[in-house]
Write a structure and sequence with these properties.
Blueprint (H helix, E strand, L loop, with lengths): L18 H23 L3 E4 L4 E4 L2 E4 L2 E5 L2 E8 L5 H16 L1 H11 L1 H6 L10 E8 L5 H5 L4 E3 L2 H14 L4 H7 L9 H4 L5 E9 L1 H4 L6 E7 L1 H7 E2 L19 H14 L7 E5 L5 E2 L17 E8 L5 E5 L1 H5 L9 H10 L2 E7 L6 H18 L5 H11 L4 H12 L23 H12 L7 H4 L6 H9 L6 H30 L17 H16 L6 H7 L16 H12 L6
């Protein structure tokens, strides 16, 4: 009998990846890992659903991840490719059906995803669940792609880095700001959805009327002691590198190392910080009579210093921190070695708070300007604010200055037009994006100034425009200030439209290839020198009183592809502008 030889089982060989494929795989895994870590840091639980098809109202699809916190569900789609409308619009059909009937989706999802079924709490009815769709791309989606899906939150670029950094710094406490970004308020989440009526935090305080504070008439100042837990739950900070869509952002992001040192101080020294935190409070904050519970202090009694009971509504974004954000957020809910003791201090210790209550008729722009001035005053008397930060604040407090108008214009160019998504405006924006400091100072400021025949101001056909020039010189509020701010908005809109028409004509004529800052060989028109040169050319076009329409620019620029933008280095943008004008716009040479 011949014995058969035992054959060793041959293991199937794995395909050997190329270096490029290995890099792509690492990049993809990092994208998933970073977002999952962030949501875990703010308190969410991950439900693994990738690879499982689900059918909702006849539409079949897959979800990459589901995360849950109490009654908040986040459905996630990741993509490492360049996001485009076709990819997201295919997903949008499923998303719309899910959002149209959340209880129905939960009914289907319970069967498909057993882990989700285990995480859904019986205390919440299906109608209590808040559901959000998040799209997490490796590369930034274009504004038109984002606009095509209004019910999807795109976490990308600098915004993604901001939240990841915030999560690492204040962990669980970052969810308040994250929820605000997702358009969720306190009454939508957790216990808030189960309460029958609104809640408030009540503090014993002292009122300082405007006659004693020298603040503008109607502004009231109250001082009180508040526990850090309540402040964190309702606080917002106008951080210039954050997510809020406003030109009135000025404070820096929380510094992680500073927070860590302050937490160690709280545990080691076992005492509260004695200097006060400066905040703003809602205009309708009740000031009650401590002797008559629930009764407001009569208006005539608010013109003198007196004890009051300050009643602050519970909610996200009700308390604006002007100064002292590190002193508040060092009490954050985290998972470091100090958390056990900090958790006790968060409720037990109290911070001295000075709150400013605005009159009800103060508009948002005026309110934000007041806050920025106050922030600058406080920081100038202590540690002097950094020059870049001071410049941002000056943009707020002197909105009619040339630099302020220029900064507003470039912020709009970064959102709409041929350069959308390509400018570096915030700390967390990609370093490969186009630097803007020289463009604002040397390109845009001369273009948008309120005088000179080479300024867009001279080409603006608005009969009231001289009011802006008068307001810039006065540099004070006075009568008509709010109306002049609205007029300024119209001028900025005109500047952005005129620039985008000109820059689009240049892009189309030069060529749209390599129109990406991350390209190995980006277009020559993506250099700051080239952009300043184009703006310098536009100033000469304005001075020559030539048409500023898109079609007029196209006719002049038809052979701009032959222009040697690369031969102009560094600060030679004015020479570039002159050469471009002479070659394509000079009436005598046309």
């Amino acid at each position: 009998m011949v014995k058969k030889k035992n054959k060793k089982k041959q293991k199937s060989k794995k395909k050997k990846l190329t270096p490029q494929e290995k890099l792509a795989l690492r990049t993809e895994r990092k994208l998933y890992r970073d977002f999952r870590v962030f949501l875990r840091e703010v308190g969410f639980t991950q439900i693994r659903v990738d690879g499982t098809e689900i059918i909702v109202d006849g539409r079949t699809g897959e979800l990459d991840d589901i995360f849950i916190y109490e009654n908040v569900l986040i459905l996630v789609e990741y993509t490492t490719g360049k996001p485009d409308s076709s990819h997201i619009l295919k997903k949008k059909v499923l998303y719309d059906k899910i959002l149209a009937d959340v209880p129905k989706f939960l009914e289907v999802a319970r069967e498909k995803y057993p882990q989700l079924h285990e995480c859904l709490k019986e205390i919440y009815a299906d109608s209590h669940y808040q559901l959000r769709i998040m799209y997490i791309p490796l590369h930034e989606a274009a504004p038109e792609t984002i606009a095509s899906c209004p019910n999807v939150s795109f976490l990308q670029g600098g915004l993604k880095k901001y939240f990841f950094a915030l999560g690492k710094t204040i962990q669980r406490s970052a969810r308040v700001e994250f929820f605000s970004y997702l358009k969720l308020d306190w009454q939508d989440v957790g216990d808030g959805v189960l309460k029958a009526s609104g809640q408030s935090h009540d503090y014993a305080g002292q009122l300082l009327p405007d006659s004693m504070s020298s603040f503008p008439a109607g502004y009231r100042v109250v001082s009180f002691y508040a526990d850090p837990e309540s402040l964190i739950a309702g606080a917002y900070v106008l951080r210039r590198d954050g997510w809020r869509d406003s030109s009135h952002l000025y404070q820096r992001i929380l510094v992680r190392s500073k927070i860590a040192k302050m937490r160690r101080y709280l545990v080691d020294q076992k005492r509260v910080f004695v200097n006060n935190v400066i905040v703003t409070l809602p205009a309708d904050t009740p000031l009650n009579d401590p002797k008559a519970k629930g009764a407001n202090v009569p208006e005539k009694e608010l013109n003198k210093a007196r004890p009051v009971a300050v009643s602050i509504p519970v909610g996200y974004g009700t308390v604006g921190i002007i100064d002292g954000q590190h002193r508040v957020f060092c009490y954050h809910e985290g998972d470091d070695i100090h958390e056990a003791k900090i958790a006790q201090l968060r409720k037990r210790q109290h911070l001295l708070v000075t709150g400013i209550i605005y009159p009800p008729d103060v508009k948002e722009k005026a309110r934000l300007e007041f806050e920025a001035r106050l922030f600058l005053e406080i920081n100038d008397t202590q540690t002097r604010a950094r020059p870049a930060l001071r410049q941002d604040i000056e943009t707020i407090v002197r909105p009619f200055s040339g630099i302020a108008v220029a900064r507003r214009v470039i912020a709009q160019l970064a959102k709409h037009g041929p350069y959308a998504g390509l400018f570096q405006l915030a700390y967390f924006d990609s370093s490969s994006k186009i630097k803007t400091s020289s463009i604002v100072s040397y390109g845009l400021r001369p273009l948008v100034k309120f005088d000179g025949s080479d300024s867009l101001f001279s080409a603006w056909k608005n009969t009231d425009k001289e009011k802006l020039k008068a307001r810039e010189k006065r540099s004070t509020k006075g009568t008509g200030y709010e109306d002049d701010l609205e007029l300024l908005d119209k001028y900025v809109e005109f500047c952005v439209k005129s620039l985008n028409d000109f820059l689009l004509a240049a892009k189309l004529a030069y060529g749209t290839s390599h129109w990406d800052v991350d390209d190995e060989s980006p277009s020559a028109l993506l250099r700051p020198t080239s952009i300043n040169g184009l703006i310098a050319c536009l100033r000469r076009v304005i001075e020559a009183e030539l048409p500023l329409t898109l079609e007029a620019h196209k006719k002049r620029m038809h052979n701009i592809a032959n222009f040697k933008f690369g031969s102009f280095k560094s600060s030679r943008w004015d020479a570039l502008g002159e050469a471009l004008f002479q070659n394509h716009y000079n009436p005598s040479g046309s």
